[in-house]
Amino acid sequence: MSREGVLLICILLSSALPGIIIFGLREESTRLRTGLNLLGASLKLTLVVAMDIGIAQGRVFEVRLLLMPGVEIFLNGDPLSALFATLSSVLWFLTTLYAVGYLEESPNRSHFFGYFSLCVTVTIGIALAGNLITFLLFYEMLTLTTYPLIIHRGTEKALLAGRNYLVYTLAGGGLFLFGVVWLQSIAGALDFSSTGLPVDLLGKYHTELVLIFALLIIGVGVKAAIVPLHGWLPQAMVAPAPVSALLHAVAVVKAGAFGITRIVLDVFGIENVLRLQLLPSLTIAASLTIIYGSVRALQQDDLKRRLAFSTVSQISYIALGVGLADQSLALIGGLVHIVHQGLMKITLFFCAGNLAETLGIHRISQMNGVARRMPLTMAAFTVGALGMIGIPPTVGFVSKWYLGLGGLASGNWWVLAVLVVSTLLNAGYFLPIVTAAWFGKQAGPWPQDRKFGSLETNWMLLLPPLVTAFIIMAVGAVANARFSPLAWVRFIVREYGI
Amino acid sequence: MLTTAPAKYRRKRIDPLVVLVFFLLAGVTAMLGRTICIMPQQMPGLENEVARHLHNSGVASPVTAVLLNFRGYDTLLEVMVLFLAVLGVWSLTRATFVGYMGDVSPVQLAMVRLLAPFMFLVAAYLVWQGSHLAGGAFQGGAVLGGAGVLMLITDLPWLPMVPARPLRCGLALGPVVFLSVALGCLIWSGGFLVYPLQAAAFLLVLIEAACALSIGLTLAALFVGGRPYGELMEEQPYEGGSGQGDE
Amino acid sequence: MMSTNLLYSLTGLVLFALGLYALIVCSHLLRKILASNIMSSGVFLMLVSTAYRAGNGKIDPVPHAMVLTGIVVSVSATALALVLACRVQETSNVTLVREEYQHDTSGA
Amino acid sequence: MVAEMTYIMAGFDMLLVATLLWLAWRLLSTPDIFKAVVLFICFGLVMALAWVRLRAPDVALAEAAIGAGITGPLFLAALRRMERLSKEERRLDFEEDRDADHSPGKV
Amino acid sequence: MLIFDADAWIICPIVFPLAASIFFFLSRRTGPVAAPVAALATGVSIIILLRQLLLFGPRHYYIGGWQAPLGITLRFDGPAVLMLAMTGLTGIGITLYARGYFSFRIAAPKRVGRHERQERFFWPLWMMLWAAMNGLFLSSDIFNLYVTMELVSIAAVALAALSGKPASQIAAIRYLLVSFLGSLSYLLGVVFLYKTYGILDLDMLQDIAGAAPGTRVALALITIGLLLKTALFPMHFWLPPAHANALAPVSAILSGLVVKGSFYLLFRFWFEVFSGAISIGALNMLGILGAGAILWGALQAMRQQRLKLLVAYSTVSQLGYLFIAFPLASLEGNMKVWGAVIFMAMAHACAKSAMFMAAGTIYLHIGHDRINELVGIRAYLPVTALAYAIAGVNLMGLPPSGGFIAKWLLLSASFNSMQWWWGVVVMVGSLLASVYVYRVVCQLFIIPEGYTIKKQYPRSHLLEWPAFTLALISLLLGLFAPYPLHILTIGSSNVATIIPGGPP
């Protein structure tokens, strides 16, 4: 195995091993657990950055493991996986910090952090998957590792949410497996590549390939919460805030969107997808989801539910970008939104968690004047909200700008319309919160009020949203810099030669 | 006496399911019968093979040769089946039948006293004869078992006092001897159940005698239908079928 | 004219079928055990009739050995079944396993 | 002479077979279980005769000894035991934990 | 003049447990101590066999030195050794668990005598059953197979009735009658074969068996007999009560191992010995029954209120997958299907015995197994709860479990042979499986507010860890798939010629 291959394995192990050890730890050994967690997180971050640099230098990162005759586990670090892996490891680091603060005195922490680590391992596995089977493998494992996190609280509601989550994702996983096996029986075991399927298959298996595409997209679409497969996501809000953050920004939803990207770009290949005329349906589904999610978000009073529907809407920007993949600008917009959405959404969830944990605020109607009590948190929240709307210095603007340009370039004016409507709706459901928080008048005492010394809340809860908010601004401001996500996405898109 | 099923279980009216089963079975049987009819009768079996190797088997009777030598492994397992049956029966219940079957008339007693030794003799003869004529361990064992049954139903007074350990040893004697001979062969002549030619006759008789004894005991034990009182006396008196509850 | 082999083979087959019928239809446990014994007798009869050679032909001893083994096996199974049947009656007082049992077996 | 022998043998075969089948039928259809067991012992003996006819003396001996000497008494003992139990009705009380059992007849 | 033939190792997996069985019968008190030793010895002998297979390839062993038509041949090749490995792994796990199980029960003050009696009969019965299973997988003689099968079923029945519950005894006698019927049907098939060919050896039959009328009838009879013993839907009626009412280690044995024996024979008969006599219609028939088993078993499992019954019905369902392989094997290369079948059998053996062990442990600790009242088990039996969940993952066929590999192979075989509908059944089956697995796991893993443990028993490692280890093995089996699949190709006559993998 090459040194690069060892690096890949180490990236996976850096969170898997702490996870397994944490399972065996006793409940009381908080320090050791936290230490292990942070050690794993920082180690992973370092390794991933090392991999990024290697990829930029053109080194090849590959590991192959025979699973069955003719079926291999293939880990491959290409630019696209580096994008997702970097995002996950950065956000995991912050989320771990946050989770340590958030769960300070709650029961079953060994359990929680064990699954938490495994969950990230699996997410990185999805990022590094080099063929469909490996992707499937980690994708199914993601379901298993996130389920215990969702039902962590063990309440009636959490169980219901968990059950729905399982129903959706297992059914989706089943369809996905079906599609994968079918594709393999037609095309053999194919690694991800920018060319996609061999062209001669298209004529021979036209109908089959269309069906397979549908199966695969539905399979990953469940996790990406494309309407009407989004039902589980708003319910999964009952999970603890770090879990929600993880689900929405790093792991589950993102894995679905990443899967759509992989299927279109690397499994089928853009050329083939265009030839099979599969993209319009994807674009339409994405647009519908964008509008639907925003409209539903507008109706929610529960803060986390509103954020959840906002995720439904925002994640489809990625699908939209991929749906317009024949235009490099749109593709850039979609891919870069993988990173940008993650940053923004995790900030918002961190803030929502802070509000709930410190003041017991769960509803938007309770938020009047909260910014005076928790200015830093609300500042971060405001940055995230503005990013979601797409106000210029933030990263959200960059994504929308590129998507719009791509839509125009492809001649699909309605895409622009969708973006405008969605932006208006975004403003419609975020701005009232922001204004109420800053300028509203506190109606009564907070549901609860925990004091944390001179800070407005626990420093471990406060630091992560501030960091992400800062990144949102910084990355948006220097979007054209050499190592910004945007530059990296351009680097990716160049490989596909559009 | 319990003669038959209670009235509600008796088949007064004809159940359509029964009719269906009947016709189905009749059809299948007819088909099988037809196959038997069109199959070639009198196909040569393995008789020539057996005849060819008989002189190497250590016995003169072909059936005994097949049983104990050519297909000795089958017989070994079969002895195990019997052993297993006793195990199973003992694990199920304690002996409830202690032999008492109503009054034993003096005539019956006398007859048993006369018959039992005679049956032992017959059994021994059958085992001995097995090496060249019809007979062998099973037949001898069966006769022994029959003698045992006879003694059991006449309620010989010493029977319940048969100590458990020797009884167990007797039951296991056949399997143990057979298995050790088989393993001994493995060491002696390099193959499982490969009897050394010069000792084959002796070994076979040894196995037969041990098995006959065990089989006789086994059959009698099966007739008793439960483990004897000497077995695990420490149990509580009402265990016979008591309690479910825990598992 | 029907050869002896054939006659006894067919008889064995009919015995097997009779036993099977009774096994399915009858509900009394003892009867079921009797029926299975009849079935095994039928099989053994077929097997031994295969070995039979008319006239002075050499008898095939292998089926005989097989039947001997089979008889012992069936005695063992019968003994276990009888004790179990007694136990079933002792503990549950179900001499006749319930009627749905009939349904069950006929599904086979 | 040979032909006559064959006819006599054939007649004997027929008789034997008929007896076997009749016994089997009777023992399976008679409503009286005790009678059935007695018939079963007879069946075993006739079976032994059939083994002799098929030139299988080893099997005949085994059948006679085991079939009539062991299996029959086994059945009789079991019958007696069941009878006695059914007379005494339920000897032991099993009501406790009754619901802990899975329904016996259920598929 | 000690000549110890290396080939003779082949009888050790049979002789070791056999001798142990007699020994445990004779000296009652040694069972708990010596049983793990005997299990370990058996396991080691199986490992040695495996090594020999890898070094020297498949072998025949002539018992008594008599060659095929006259004597009895043992044969070990890839599939047989894998099945032996299955009994070895599961057997060691079950033996250790049983030790913990019985000592736990004997430690409880209630009805000590009864538990001791059960333990003392358990050891010889279980060892005998193990020996017979090993003999079954190694034997290559159709009549010898009958005897080993009878040994297996008598031991299994005695074990099933061991708990002494009335329900278990009713189930046991039904089990006995059914398996006796199955054996007789099989034996009748053997008679037909002997009538036709005058031969009992499987390898020789394979060479000469054609589509003669006797062959078909024989195959049909043998199949019916074996199906009854394997409990394929709709002949499964005896299985759930028998498996659910037995003692926990016994349930693990019955569900994990015993049903696999007759299935293995069935597969071998169909695809090695009589591959010339089978027809597509018959294969599809078995496939349909298998599909019925998957769906019916899963639906029944979903409806059960008691944990052990649920697990037992899931066995019915999982056995169905094995039969889906039949129609696939006819068109697709046998390699893939053999692989799927063996994988399914091995993974299911480990997972199912782990499940039953976990269920038994739970039963011991809380005194019932009503699914709706299992809340909070994780609080004081974390390892057991996790073992159950992992085994459940296997039944659902999610990666990286062995069940996933099996389902993958089945699916890809169904696509490659243009019979995708079997693939649909497999998928639906796994989804249903996830429902019934979820029902329990969800209960086990909730710890409601203010939950307190009612009664604290001393921790018993032997109760918890064997189940967990077996579950873990079943999970990790998927990651080491190439090794078993490689072993499988050694000496399985139909397999070697087929090129693995790839599109048609």
Salient structural properties:
heteropentamer; C: 108 residues; mainly alpha; Helix Hairpins; 4 helices; disordered C terminus; E: 504 residues; two-stranded antiparallel sheet; 19 helices
Description of the structure:
The complex is a heteropentamer of chains A (498), B (247), C (108), D (107) and E (504). Chain A is mostly helical and 498 residues long. Chain A has a domain at 288-498. Chain A has helices at residues 3-24, 30-56, 79-102, 109-128, 132-150, 156-187, 200-204, 206-224, 232-235, 241-250, 252-268, 270-276, 279-299, 303-323, 328-359, 370-373, 375-389, 395-409, 413-439, 459-477, 485-496; strands spanning 61-68, 71-77. In chain A, a hairpin with a 2-residue loop joins strand 1 (61-68) and strand 2. Chain C is mainly α and 108 residues long. In chain C, helix 1 (4-25) packs antiparallel against helix 2 (29-51) and helix 2 (29-51) runs antiparallel to helix 3 (61-92). Helix content of chain D is 76%, strand content 0%. Chain D is elongated and about 60 Å long. By secondary structure, chain E is mostly helical. Chain E has helices at 12-26, 31-56, 78-107, 112-138, 142-160, 166-197, 202-208, 213-230, 239-245, 248-273, 280-303, 307-331, 334-366, 377-380, 382-396, 402-416, 420-445, 461-476, 482-489, and strands spanning 59-63, 72-76. In chain E, a hairpin with an 8-residue loop joins strand 1 (59-63) and strand 2. Mean pLDDT of chain E is 87; it is low at 494-504. Classes of the chains: A mainly alpha (498), B mainly alpha (247), C mainly alpha (108), D mainly alpha (107), E mainly alpha (504). Chains in contact: A-E, B-C, B-D, B-E, C-D, C-E, D-E. The interface between B and E is large, with 62 and 75 residues.
Approximate helicity band of chain B: 55-70%
Low-confidence parts of chain D, pLDDT < 50 over ≥5 residues?
A: 89-107
Largest two-chain interface: B-E, 62 and 75 residues
Overall pLDDT level of chain D = 77
- Spans of chain B with pLDDT under 50 lasting ≥5 residues? 1-8, 233-247
Task: Report how far the terminal alpha carbons of chain D are from each other.
Answer: 62 Å
Q: Strand portion of chain D, in percent?
A: under 5%
Total of DSSP H or I helical runs spanning 4+ residues of chain B: 8
Number of strands of chain D: 0
Computed over alpha carbons, the radius of gyration of chain B is 24 Å
Biggest sheet descriptor of chain D: none
**Structure class of chain B:** mainly alpha
Rounded to the nearest angstrom, the distance between the terminal CA atoms of chain B is: 35 Å
User: Helicity level of chain D, as a percent range?
Assistant: over 70%
Oligomer description: heteropentamer
Number of helices of chain D: 3
**Per the principal axes of the C-alpha atoms, what is the gross shape of chain D?**
elongated
Helix-strand sequence of chain B: HHHHHHHH
Can you write the helix and strand succession of chain D as a string?
HHH
